[in-house]
TrEMBL record:
Main location: cytoplasm
Keywords tagged on the record: Allosteric enzyme, ATP-binding, Cytoplasm, Glycolysis, Kinase, Magnesium, Metal-binding, Nucleotide-binding, Transferase
GO MF annotation terms: 6-phosphofructokinase activity; AMP binding; ATP binding; fructose-6-phosphate binding; identical protein binding; metal ion binding; monosaccharide binding
Subcellular location, record wording: Cytoplasm
Domain named Phosphofructokinase: residues: 23-384, 464-697
InterPro entries reported in the protein's UniProt record: 6-Pfructokinase_euk, ATP_PFK, Phosphofructokinase_CS, Phosphofructokinase_dom, PKF_sf
The protein, known as: 6-phosphofructokinase
Name of the gene this protein is made from: pfk1
Length: 829
């Protein structure tokens, strides 16, 4: 885990004092995106912990070209006039790079003010630890970005090299799109010649030329379009998707009220990821993306036929999403206005166009756009420290939830091949160059949006599929149910809702679901079917009898660890009850993310965003009050996922989790840390401190605001050191601690605005595909060995018949939710 305050310096491998410190700068370039500030913050803090000196470059590459005017120099903030013997920090590196005083100017936007301290004439600015504190919660980029014309010229790059050498900088972190990263690689490749020319013309000395003979470069992808190859996600894309879905949610009410059709244009000049994921997440009726263009001669007929079929079954609203780069098969642009006219003229619909524009870029970053840039920023620093003149420039990405390094230009070249393939009308190649999830999501969209007149499967292969929610409600349950229901209907199966879990089954609370009946479930939180924690072993024989009575051929369980346990119980019960010899599938859905054998559960992302929103609001009070410690309690059972990831997302100083536990020594050190940290605050600006406690576990973090800090605690971190105990300890030692325990936070998380739409729609399709692995009419035959499966989001499914040790550990909420299974596994499609 990364962090954040001085108490976490010790675990990091500090640089060798005998070696010369690396001086690195970070800049943002190209279009802005949420999460860029988190990158800057992470790079600066990780670099300081590694013993480096850090700069930021204002206005992107343009700032490198302009450099610093003569006479301007960096002056430390005089607010850090404290006695080192009083605060007892061992790490001189931390103390010497705590604050340089320009952080507030950058954050408040007062850097160019003519009076007092100013950034005028300074584009390469020295920054310290506190200068970037809390930046991760801000949208856009506080250090500015620009598309530099001067840097595209060799003379401009020559000047940029001179400015960097003048400041002693020999490493550069660039956050931007493919154009910005290409510029960085060109700059690095030209560097030796640029240095030679600068020396020969007398612009730098021979000593400077020798000292800065090589330039280290690393790139991070900041792009809301998610258009970079060799990475699953780019910085800013998740937040942009949030903004789009929020807009669609707002439009849905007026569209329904007036029975209107809305055509939304979203960003995506060469990539349809935003349009596709927004369509999947919001339940749109039709979509236009550049990678999968419709037939030039037939698309109007196809669109009208699909939308009319939706209207024929009683649907009152129509949503069509168009990527700004959408074309037909002849590469003719498809404009939102033209689509609106087609809907109006051919179907007689009252149609409107909404262009979201730059609202997609704005707003505070979502949880994932705080966590991912933080992890990537730390990896970027590591990559620079390990770089040699012979290593390629790396791009930091994420693949299968792992932070990765890939050759920068290889990723850029593969990205450009998509545009070339589209220009050559080689659309299958364009799709193949996208992430596999892209194709799966497109398939999922069509499977849940097309209302087929005739089912795809013959009569003898059609099944009666029961769908049940088990456990606590979680965001995404209803969206998953909607996707499963519509896919079943498309194939010819009959989906049945089992209300109120296994208790409802015993009371015959079962009814068949319809295509239109689940239409509005996509954005609804909680559980429309009703759910509880009762397991089938309350009366296994009666449950089997109800399976036979309703003639179920398959069962889809959606829920958390209780649903996983129910799957195990039913699997064991096959020895005694033939009714359970049917395909059984579990889709993980829990805010705790504690289901074994899967990396993510539906609802966990929503819960993190609820925690972020709550802490952002709390820190406003902490900021205003100063000198305060807020204790926030979260949930999650005996799993520390929410606490740990929440700590990264809100900038925690420390985190207490059930997996790590806590003791008196740990608390004593934390209290000492608070005292020391207060002693280092700028005079007159003592920072507030915020503590977040998991209701079973505790997590502590430093707030984003310059006047607030937070500690996060898991609810089961310790049964002895409760939130009240921790608060009293802090209050006794500090005399300035305010307690705020969000006992209702978890319930708020369960009903928070959904952010799991893509996973909730795509994952159930794999689950229903899994049902097809069993033979036709499986209820009348012996079950296949692997026809009971627990889903792992990411495409892999596992046999739930794992040993008792694994099940026990999962029940205790240990780390087994992120371990590989100990027995047989198989891959689906």
């Amino acid at each position: 885990m990364i962090e954040i305050e001085a108490s976490y310096i010790a675990p990091f491998a500090m640089a060798d004092p005998s070696k010369e410190k690396m001086r690195l700068a970070v800049l943002t370039s190209g279009g802005d995106s949420a999460g860029m500030n988190a990158v800057v913050r992470a790079v600066v803090k990780a670099a300081i912990l590694k013993g480096c000196e850090t700069w930021i470059v204002r206005e992107g590459y343009e700032g490198l070209v302009r450099g610093n005017a003569e006479g301007h120099r960096h002056v430390s903030d005089k607010g850090i006039c404290v006695s080192h013997k009083d605060v007892h920090f061992h790490e001189e590196t931390f103390l010497h790079h705590l604050r340089y005083g320009d952080g507030e100017l950058l954050r408040d936007g007062t850097g160019d003010h003519p009076g007092g301290r100013t950034l005028k004439g300074r584009y390469i600015v020295r920054v310290g630890w506190d200068d970037v504190r809390g930046w991760f919660a801000e949208g856009g980029t506080l250090i500015g970005t620009a598309r530099s014309v001067a840097f595209r010229t060799r003379e401009g790059r020559l000047t940029a090299a001179q400015n960097m050498i003048k400041e002693g900088i020999d490493a550069l972190v660039v956050c931007g799109g493919d154009g910005s990263l290409t510029g960085a690689d060109v700059f690095r490749s030209e560097w030796p010649k640029l240095v030679t020319e600068l020396q020969s013309t007398g612009r730098i000395t021979e000593e400077e030329a020798q000292k800065h003979a090589h330039l280290k470069i690393v790139g991070l992808v900041g792009s809301i379009d998610n258009d970079m190859s060799m990475t699953d996600l780019t910085i800013g894309a998740p937040t942009a998707l949030h903004r789009i879905c929020e807009s669609i949610d707002n439009i849905n009410s007026t569209a329904y009220s007036h029975s209107r059709a809305f055509v939304l244009e979203v960003m995506g000049r060469h990539c349809g990821w935003l349009a596709l994921m927004a369509s999947v997440s919001s339940g749109a009726d039709f979509i236009f993306i550049p990678e999968n263009p419709p037939d030039a001669e037939k698309w109007e007929d196809s669109m009208c036929k699909m939308i009319q079929s939706h209207r024929d079954v009683g649907k009152r609203k129509t949503i069509v999403i168009v990527a700004e780069g959408a074309v037909d098969s002849n590469l003719k642009p498809i404009r939102a206005e033209y689509v609106k006219d087609v809907l109006t003229n051919r179907l007689g619909l009252d149609s409107r166009v909404t262009t979201l524009g730059h609202t997609q870029r704005g707003g505070k970053p979502c949880a994932f756009d705080r966590i991912m840039p933080t992890l990537q920023g730390v990896e970027a620093v590591n990559a620079l420290l390990e770089a040699t003149p012979d290593t390629p420039s790396y791009m930091i990405g994420i693949r299968e939830n792992k932070i990765t390094r890939v050759p920068l230009m290889e990723a850029v070249e593969m990205t450009r091949q998509v545009s070339v393939a589209i220009a050559e009308k080689n659309f299958p190649k364009a799709m193949s160059l996208r992430d596999p999830e892209f194709s799966e999501s497109l398939e999922g969209f069509f499977a849940t949006s097309i209302l087929e007149s005739e089912p795809k499967l013959p009569h003898h292969l059609r099944m009666r599929v029961a769908i049940m929610h088990v456990g606590a409600p979680a965001g995404g349950m209803n969206a998953a149910t909607r996707a499963a229901v519509r896919y079943c209907i498309r194939q010819g199966h009959k989906p049945f809702a089992v209300h109120n879990g296994f208790l409802g089954l015993l009371e015959d609370n079962v009814h068949q679901l319809s295509w239109l009946g689940v239409d509005n479930w996509m954005t609804r939180g909680g559980s429309e079917l009703g759910t509880n924690r009762k397991l089938p072993d309350i009366d296994l024989g009666a449950v089997a009898a109800k399976f036979q009575q309703h003639n179920f051929h398959a069962l889809l369980l959606i829920g958390g660890f209780e649903a996983f346990s129910a799957l195990q119980i039913l699997d064991v019960g096959r020895k005694y009850y033939p009714a359970f010899n049917i395909p059984l599938v579990h889709l993980p859905a829990t805010i705790s993310n504690n289901v074994p054998l899967t990396e993510f559960s539906l609802g966990s992302d929503t819960s993190l965003n609820a925690l972020v929103d709550a802490c952002d609001a709390i820190k406003q009070s902490a900021s205003a009050s100063r000198n305060r410690v807020f204790v926030v309690e979260t949930q999650g059972g005996k799993c520390g996922y929410i606490a740990t990831m929440g700590a990264l997302a809100v900038g925690a100083c420390m985190v207490y989790t059930p997996e790590r536990g806590m003791n008196l020594d740990m608390l004593r050190n934390d209290v000492k840390f608070l005292k020391r940290r207060y002693g280092l605050d700028a005079k007159g600006k003592s920072e507030g401190r915020l503590v977040i406690r998991y209701s079973i576990l505790r997590l502590v973090f430093s707030g984003y605001n310059r006047n607030s800090s937070t500690y996060v605690r898991n609810e089961i971190a310790s049964e002895v050191y409760t939130t009240d105990v921790i608060t009293k300890m802090f209050k006794e030692e500090e005399g300035r601690c305010l307690t705020l325990v969000l006992h209702l936070w978890a319930h708020t998380a369960r009903w928070h605005s959904l952010s799991d739409g893509p996973c909730a729609s795509g994952a159930p399709l794999a689950e229903v595909h899994e049902l097809h692995r069993a033979p036709p009419r499986a209820v009348d035959q012996a079950v296949l060995p692997n026809s009971a499966s627990a889903s792992r989001i990411g495409g892999r499914h596992y046999d739930p018949r794992i040993d008792s040790e694994m099940g026990a550990r999962a029940g205790d909420g240990g780390a087994c939710g992120h371990e590989e299974p100990k027995r047989e596994a198989f891959v689906v499609g």
